[in-house]
Amino acid sequence: MDARIGIRNTKSILFKSLIIFLAFVVTLPLIIILLYIIKQGVMQVNWHFLTHVPAPEGETGGGIANALVGSLLIIAMSSVVAIPVGILAGIYLSENPGTKLAYYSGLCVDILQGVPSIVMGIVVYFWIVKPFGFSAISGSIALAIMMLPIVIRSTEQTLLLLPPSLKEAALSLGVPYHRVILKVIVPCGFAGILSGIILSIARIIGETAPLLFTALGSNYLSTNVTGAMESLPHLIFTYATSPYDDQHDLAWGASFILLMFVLILNIVTKLITRKWKIQL
Amino acid sequence: MMKNKRLDLSYSQMKWETVFKRILTVMSAIILLLVAGVFVTLIVESWPSIKSLGIGYLWGKVWDPVNNVYGAYPFLLGTLLTSFTALIISIPFSYAIAIYLGEYNPKGWLSNLLKNTIELIAAVPSIIYGFWALFVLVPQVRKLETAIHIAPYGVGVFTASIVLAVMIIPYAAALGTSLIRMVPSPLKEGAYALGATRFEVIRSVILPYTRSGLFAGILLSLGRALGETMAVTVLIGNTSAIASSFKEIFFGPGNTMASVIANEFAEADHTLYLSALIELGLVLFFVTVIINLIGKRIITKYTNH
Q1: Does A237 contact B169 at a Cβ distance shorter than 8 Å?
Q2: Which residues of chain A neighbour B28 with C-beta distances below 8 Å?
Q3: A59 with A106, same domain?
Q4: Does residue A240 share a domain with residue A134?
Q5: Would A40 be classed as within a structural domain?
């Protein structure tokens, strides 16, 4: 009897150790990758690196100004499209649960969330690039579509958490519906909506596949949104697979910058959700 | 006069109310239109290939655009092989994380730290995984391949699967954690009262109770793995020919549906070539959508009980 309890207890302890080991081993690859990128990238980053375009193939020096400006512009344009549409659609979903449209829209949000980014790239290629040519705008639209599900879901989830008495109180004072939503409900859920927006930006800032056939990439610093434009992830992709060491260095630097963006955006989301106690 | 003005104001407010409600409806309908648009575009653009190559396209073994021969089998094989290898590698880890964060240590700083770190794995852009692996992991794999006497390509299905495994762990782990936390404590307490050890409670109460939910988490991870493009494109070696032995297929270079689209879409110079690539996208779209919807369905069913 005693022996059996001993065996069962040992088994339990062994299992616990195994679980703890496996759970923490997973953090190793992440730590190794982060440290490696920081080690390789941080040496590259200086003022020259941030303000110059890449040197021609085979030459040393140059920077990633074109990709930096391009990424920021493309993200800004995606946000301008995706944020209003996403918030309004999210409000619809939280305000009209149970309607047919809400059911099918919700289903489509789930579908959009699962669409592989490369597929989004080819679809936007046919929608915009084929008739109008390669442009930063087409890249932004592909990314905006990828942002939508996250913005919609976070808006919907946040608003569903608000007590119904808020809305009822405002309505009973005779406030018109659109003012109730825009001046009472949305400001109350602002933190949740904001963290959803930041999270969606963090998600798309590193997306490469939708930009391959849309924004394309360019070696020049360009602010013309109707033309091809470089972006950080696309620059990393092109230079990572190139044979020149100088280009690899540029790609390491760009990876470091991109990683910092992603880390900061994620930490900001964490701080907001912690401060306002939101579950996303 | 005064009264009329007020009436006008409330009329205009009522008008705005209707307009606002319409805008909400339209925005929500836009999502439907987007998905329908994606679907229709993929079908229309891949129609030449669907029409002339038929269903046999899916198991045609040869992909030779120069001679206008198209078969999707190499890419289906590559996609399934990388995704399922990655999935099998990732399952023990995502289950371990779910059990640790859900049962052993659901609160406290260590638990939070681990949870945030795991979430960060999903946040790192896939191109950075690919780039890092190309310069750090590939030489290691090459050494391993030399040691076991196979052609030391370094890049290939095996390398891509390892990186993919790391990338998809967070999805199943996050869902598993929240589901294990939802197991009613009376169930666990009952088992403890009968004298069960922690391990026995996990094995015979928690895991059976959360089985379908954990399965849904694996489906979500699988959906990610199937559609993952950039890391795989950089690492898989991009060969559309199928090697003769399984060992060579597994360790040697290959191609997945997503990676062949990424590599060849820009250079597809005639209609059939292009539409054959888009048909791959269509298949990918279908498969990921179905897997994701089944996963989501299981989750909603599970959380509603």
Answers
A1: no
A2: 88-89, 92-93, 101-102, 105
A3: yes
A4: yes
A5: no
CA distance to B105, B133, B152, B243, B277, per residue, from B249 (Å): 41, 20, 13, 5, 22
CB contact under 8 A, B281 and A118: yes
By CA distance, what is B133's nearest residue in A?
Answer: A33
Answer yes or no: is pLDDT of B2 > 80.
no
pLDDT tens-place string over residues B255-272? 999 999 999 998 888 889
Residues A133, A59, single domain; the answer is yes
Spell out the alpha helix ranges (H) of chain B. 2-53, 73-99, 109-123, 126-132, 138-147, 157-181, 185-193, 198-201, 207-227, 230-235, 246-251, 257-264, 271-304
Do residue A7 and residue A116 come from a single domain?
Answer: no
CA distance A52 to chain B (A): 22
- Statement to judge: residues A88 and A24 lie in one domain: no
Mutate to test the interface with A, among B11, B101, B119, B128 (most CBs of A within 10 A): B128
> Could you give the CA distance from residue B153 to residue B139 in angstroms, rounded to a whole number?
9
CB contact under 8 A, B99 and A19: yes
Q: Is B274 on the interface with A (CB under 8 A)?
A: no
Nearest CB partner across the interface for A36, out of B119, B132, B261: B132
In a domain, A235, yes or no: yes
B194 touches chain A (CB under 8 A): no
Q: Does B120 sit within 8 Å of A30, measured CB to CB?
A: yes
Interface test with A, best of B23, B30, B31 (most A CBs within 10 A): B31
Do residues A147 and A219 both lie within one domain? yes
Q: What is the CATH number of the domain that holds A254?
A: 1.10.3720.10
Judged by CB atoms closer than 8 Å, whether chains meet at B24 and A92 is answered as yes
Going from the C-alpha of A30 to that of each of A222, B182, B240, the distances in angstroms are: 34, 28, 31
**Cβ neighbours of residue B25 closer than 8 Å, sequence gap 6 or more:** A92, A101
| Number of structural domains found in chain A | 2
The tens digit of pLDDT for each residue in B137-180 reads 999 999 998 998 888 888 999 999 999 999 999 999 999 999 99
Residues A7 and A110 in one domain: no
Structure tokens at B210: 């959360």
d(CA B129, CA A160): 36
Is A207 a member of any domain? yes
Q: What's the pTM? A: 0.92
**A254, A235 in Cβ contact below 8 A?**
yes
Is residue A95 domain-shared with residue A205, that is, in the same domain?
A: yes
- Please state the ipTM of this predicted complex: 0.91
Do the domain assignments include residue A230?
A: yes
Between positions 48 and 77 of B, the ones with CB within 8 A of A are none
Domain extent at residue A23: 2-32
Split at pLDDT 50, 70, 90, the class of B30 is very high
Nearest to B125 by CA among B180, B185, B72, B167: B167
Contact criterion met (CB < 8 Å) for A30 and B21: no
User: How many whole angstroms separate alpha carbon B185 and alpha carbon B207?
Assistant: 14
Q: Where are the alpha helices (DSSP H) in chain A?
A: 2-25, 27-42, 47-51, 65-95, 100-114, 117-124, 130-132, 136-161, 164-172, 177-179, 186-188, 190-204, 209-212, 232-240, 245-275
